[in-house]
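Methods — Computational structure assignment.
A single polypeptide chain was analysed. Its primary sequence is given first, followed by the predicted tertiary structure written as structure tokens.
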Amino acid sequence: MSKQYNVAILGATGAVGTRMIEQLAQSTIPVKHVKLLASKKSAGKTLQFKGQPVTVEETTPESFDGVDIVLSSAGGSVSKKFLPEAVKRGAVCVDNTSAFRMEPDMPLVVPEVNEAALKDHHGIVANPNCSTIQMVMALEPVRRNFGLKQIVVSTYQAASGAGQSALNEMYQEAQDFLDGKDMQADAHILPTKGDKKHYPLAFNLLPQIDVLEESGYSHEEWKMIHETKKIMLGDMNSQDIKVTATCVRVPVPIAHGESVYFTVEDESATAQDIMRVVADFPGNVLEDDIAHQIYPQPINAVGKRETFVGRIRPDYENKGAFNMWVVADNLLKGAAWNTVENAERLVALGLV
């Protein structure tokens, strides 16, 4: 009989955590027992796993006794506090926070792109930022076949990327607007909890995700730049691919969009060549039929694991340069599914 695994989900009651439960239930991981962990406030709640009720427990170091795999999405400070405890007790963790992404000895993995990095784990595998995940999914087949020189990305990121409370805030602001009320009165979270001012997102665009740094870039933009290099090149500071980003929060509930401009080393590549390799890459869906107005849309990506790519076209002013439009469910491929998928691969490769 094949080995079965005891799995703990840390942050089980959050927007990503509840989706991790669903994705784990649909995964190939043979689960012997599942443990749902959250804060003291959420302890005692009942959630379902494969149709069976499971009571949420308060997280303590002892919660990880006997656990083989931890799937975590409870915030960076919680991950830093509890995941080393889980590793001490013999668990392998896949973490969906920013806590360990830039640690030199921590693999940062999108399975379709750099699965080989999993073998270098020391108990913790980091899940990349949601916006980075879908971009490297779209661009990795391009890099492998034609080389990549430069990436310029502008993101259109959904409200849910800032958590359920931010999504609820946007809905309330939208209702305020429709009722002729002041939206500002309900702006308490966005653009980011960690900054001094807050602005409405409903019927608005916010060109700030995470805190603004002295460089002029937001931390989200910094993450996209350096995570892309670490995933594709194994070095967050590599200059082999130039990357720059502008990250914008938009009033969409779920699923991020990205406008990606890139230049390739092989200047003989055509838009049709790019389409072909993108479509053939596991996990990608090409939606690119301009004659019938077919292109990726967030509303169609919700609830799906795939990354959707379209509007692939050359920059006629610059040889070897192209544009594309990329959409994915930020709570699934951008978070819960990529986390569970990493755990699937760890199990399949005998790394747990």
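Note: The CA atoms of residues 190 and 305 lie 27 Å apart.
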